Structures are given as C-alpha cells and as structure tokens.
Fold:
Amino acid sequence: MASGQAFIENLINILDIISEQRTISKGEFLIREGQIEKNLYYIETGAVRVFHLSEFEEQTIRFGYEGSFINSLYSFIKGTPSEFYIEALRKSTLRVISKGQLLDIVNESNERLKQYNSLLETLVCQQIEREIDLLTVSPSERLRRVLERSPNLFQEIPLKYIASYLRMTPETLSRIRNS
Amino acid sequence: MQIQTHLLIEDLLNRTEKATRAVKRFKELSIEQLNYKKSATEWSVLECIEHLNLYGDFYLVEIEKQILAHKSKAPSTVFKSGLLGNYFANLMQVKDGKVNKMKSPKDKNPVNSVLTPTTLDRFLKQQERLKSLLIQAQHVDLTKTKTAISLTGLVQLRLGDTFRFFVYHIERHVLQAERIHAGRTSPHLSTSTVG
Structure:
C-alpha cells in the first residue's frame, strides 16, 4: 500500500511537468460509451461520475473527487470500446496523461514498476470493496460502508447520484439519512 | 384487422430498423441542434426522443413480462386485432406523412427537462430490446397474450396491437424529430401536444 502511495506521489510530481491541463464544464463528458479510453485523468478541482447506461436508467458506479485519478479503466487496459460514460458533475480541471506516457513512467525503473504493481493491487481491493457494496442487501448498511470510505460524499456529490451509486431511490436515501 | 403473424412481425421489425437508423443520424448533431426548438412550448429533437424513452420504460418492461409468462405451446399463425387495440394503433399511425394531433399525458411530456446526448443512446438501447422482443414474439400467440397499457389499468390490449401501437408511436415521433431538425415543421406537428 505504502509503495502504491509512493507511485501516486511520484506520478503527481511528474504530471506537473509533462501532462496537459484540461477544463471541462458541468455535463461535459470525458468519455462516452463506444469510445476507446486513451488517457488517465487526475482531478485537480471538481468532481466526476462514471456511469453505465441501460435501456431504462443511468447507473452510477464510481465517483472521482478532487485529488483522485479516474478513467474508463477496462477500456484503458484492454483497448476495447468503453462500456461507461464519465461526466463532469461541475466545472472541473484535470491533468491528462496518455497511456503511452504512463507506461513510459512505469517502465523507467524496477522501483517504479513495483510501485505501479502496488497501485494496481490497491485498485483490485477497491473493486472488491465495491463488489461487497453491491452484494449488501440492507440499504442503510450500503450507505454506512460508503461513508466509511468517503466521509465527504454528501459535500461533494449531488444526492441523486449518490442514490444511484447506492442502488436506491433518492427518497429512500433521504429517509435513511434522516432516521 | 387480420394478418399472418410473421408478416406483421416482419413489418414491425422493418419499421423499427428504419427508426433506429434515423436516430443514429441524430448522433452526428451538436447538442445545440438537438435542443433547438421553435418556441418554448414546442418540443426539441431530444424531447421527442425522451418522450419515446418514457413510453419504452413502461411498454418494454410490460411486453417482456408477458412474453416470459406466456404458456401457449402452438401459437396461432394469424393475428386478429382487437377493436380497441386496432383503434389505438391506427390513431398513432402516420398516413401519407400526415399525423393527427393529440395531447401527451403529463407524465410522458419531457418539455423543458434537462436532456443530454445519452437520451439518444438510451433510445437506441431500447430499440435493440424492442427488436429482440419482436423476434421472441414469433413464438408467442399475439392475439391471446394480453398486456396492460400506460393510460389506464382498466383495459388490456392484445400483444400484437400493443406492438403495433408502440412501433407506430415511435415512427410518429421520429418523423416529428426529423421535421424539427429539418426546420420545416408541418402544421400537423406544430405544437408540443402531439401525442
């Protein structure tokens, strides 16, 4: 874990030098379904959400906050069309780094490679946490789990997207919060 | 009205494919073009499509439910339209490019809601689902299988009529959206209250 953190710190330092900055306004998309993810984004300010679109609804599956990295990961790794959309929830400034640039940094030294591996391990664990979220039957328990990970959730993200992330209606979410 | 089941399904699949192609062309338009409207009370292209999505939310779920629940082993090869079902379907149908004006129920009126390009993507997903349901329906009795309707719980329609109503309704509003984009909205379509 500590080593993954080291990679992130290194990466952020390098980003200052090599990456381009992009500003997107509320409602703009970083990627849409069907496009191929070529970048990794670091959120300097703002917030985004990752969602999957079905015939009937948009299902929010992940948030990106200030100071976090985000992209459509599966598409980025495999080079296949993205199944997800990433949308800015408010005006956001991002650092953009391409897959090629990232791999150059990773392959620079053995130490970097180890750090990167450690970062990927962290990501796998986060995915498992999310999987448990989705398997958790009780709505209030789902909310508790997420608040433990992201205590500032309600300050950062509009309620309707939190409800979608928790797989409940906004009304249910309000009721649980007030009880 | 009476028709061979496979002919009806073939016809509805063709109409569905045509509507899908038309909406795929809308994906090339800018968000400004998609939201363009002549006046505040009229619909934009996206509002026409969102109106269809709201219907799809009800009918695709209902149709799928009835198809999954159907029991008949040897479905009839002929579909016989019901009195009311035939009336509703014909009401929706575009004839010689003419559309009879009607009011949309409030809960299906998307006017002035905030819409994004995902509206089009959602519609295209619904069209895929519709296509799949039409194909599955080849093995279902379209006359004996009944579905609920969105307007009232008092009436049920024959599945074949529900499909006709649903597909004609899509045709109608895709045509409306095309005319809005072309900027030559016909007098028949000039208000937001077109069904």
Q: What stands out?
A: The longest strand of chain A covers residues 39-45. Strands of chain A lie at 20-24, 29-31, 39-45, 48-53, 58-64, 69-70, 85-88, 92-98.
